[in-house]
Design brief:
The chain has about 650 residues and is mainly beta. It is built from 3 helices and 22 strands. It is flat and about 150 Å long. The relative contact order is 0.06.
Amino acid sequence: MSSRHRYILAATVSLLCAVVLVVPAAASNDGLAGAVPADVIVNDETVKGGIVPGGRDIEHTIWFQGFLADVNSGDPISGSVDVVARIYAVASGGSSTWGPETHNAVTVTEGWFHIELGSVSLLPVFDEPPYYLELTVDGETMDARQKLASVPMAHNAEDLELPFQGSIDGVSTGFSLNSTNALNSNSTLLSQHNGLGAAVRGYHSGSGPAIMGDAAGTGLAGDFNGDVDVAGDLTTDGFMLTASPSAGHVLTSDAVGAGSWQAPASWLTLPYNETYVGTGTAFQVVHDGAPSGYAGRFLVDNSSNASDALYVRTNGGGDVIRGFQSDLFGGGGSVADFDIGFSSNASPVVDAKTPGVGPAYYGDTSGPYAVEVYSDYLSTDTHVVHAECTGTGNEHTRAVYGRSVPAGGYGFGGYFDGGHVGVYGRNSSTHSGSKWAIRGLCTGGNGTNFGVYASASGAAVNWAGYFVGDARVTGTFDNSLARLVIDHPLDPANKYLYHSVVESPDMMNVYNGNVVLDAAGEVWVELPEWFDALNRDFRYQLTAIGAPGPNLYVADKVSANRFRIAGGEPGMEVSWLVTGVRQDNYAVENRIQVEEDKPEKERGRYLHPEAYGLPRTMSVDYDEQDEKLLADESASVRRSRTVAEQAEPDDD
């Protein structure tokens, strides 16, 4: 020993755990198994770091006790020292397999001290002993390394004691066995049980599999000799039942659920395609069981299949499909019930077509609805009833015809109720002549007829009629209040300006009032603050009240929204009137054309032909199809009644 040394390690006691690795440890944060042993629950108790026989806790540190003496006198040392520990796989030389681990201010009492290895830095897995401990005390490395001995308590058990019951609380695989010999025909794991329980049982409350087998070679991922009980769903890419297999057989079961392959029974097998040339019923299915289920059911489950689930055709004179529901036995169901369960299917539930003159669909009932349809599809394209006439030609066909006349003065031809629009009329054809989005025609009778009747109430703003564009009334226009509304010239974005309507070739506004002259025989007339902004081309009129006023005159014309009257007697009352021509932006852009030629289509026609002794056919709004519509209506009524009076089909 060098003379510069102050200490000598005179005595040591060290313990090492057994090191044969069988049960894997959990992965550490970097994903490597074995860095941190996983927690295991054994006999309802959590065991830190591994599995031990008897269920005792495993310590992850090693206690080391040593004796320090003065190198010269041999006297024991007392006080405080710093100790650095390293572990080597060889007695001398080489590189350390663990450490350095520093223990500062270790208490030494009469030479004796102890440190807990692994309390600062995680100890390695001791799988290939022997191992040697080297200590450095206050910077001086002790000359001899101390061999670590083993003890009964181990970091990893050499054998797994059975019976074993536990659960893994780590983040890696709880239990893993691998066979690396490609030619080994034995099983990687064999579980044999001669009792009443299960040889292998898996339970997992998470999202992964409780038991998982993977065979990359020619072997089996799992081989069970005996019954296998699966309480949940069984998902498989293939299926093979080895009991009595034969081509064309069907899978069936006995009374206790045991499955086997059997020859098909006498019922219909698929695919089926036959031709019947007899005179009886070609195909018949009778459901005579409990009061539920289908007599026949046809399904297309493949979402990419665009074919019909059921195709029925006849070349004879009978019905293609005929349904009859009898209530002799307490029925009450529908004659036919059609349903599409695939939400993205854009095909109609019922597609009815006919090349003849009869209706493609005819509904007749003694109840309140001959046809009842619903849709819960929410879209701007949704229309619960779609009617379209696809014929071409110069005819006034009707996409929808409604008539209800149970008695004179009763019935609605159509009734519509909408959350936003009750009735919406639209005409977007490219026809160059007259066309209508909505047209009302009411004729006959001896009471009061309304071509269009509208009312609105109950809201903050109510419009019985609202027209964007020009509106024309060729008859009498009765109104309680006629007014003009424009954007306010002083605040067009936020206010309206209203005026009562005055008929004039000009777009004229009229203002008037009464004033009393002052002691000088004059007065200023104050006009609204928007007067100058709205009007131009002013005209004045003054009238003395109570006495002549021959000298009255307008002393100052309108300026800054006022004008001055003078030339009267003091105290005289004067009635004044001022007119102006609108000069707001809309009026400037839309001046009234006092005279204009009639459009080509209206030339030779009149707004009021009766006033000139001419027939109604000379009216500008006369449509030559009006009479044809009325005539066609009576013919349609006759055809509808004929269809409704057709004989009911037989019930047999």
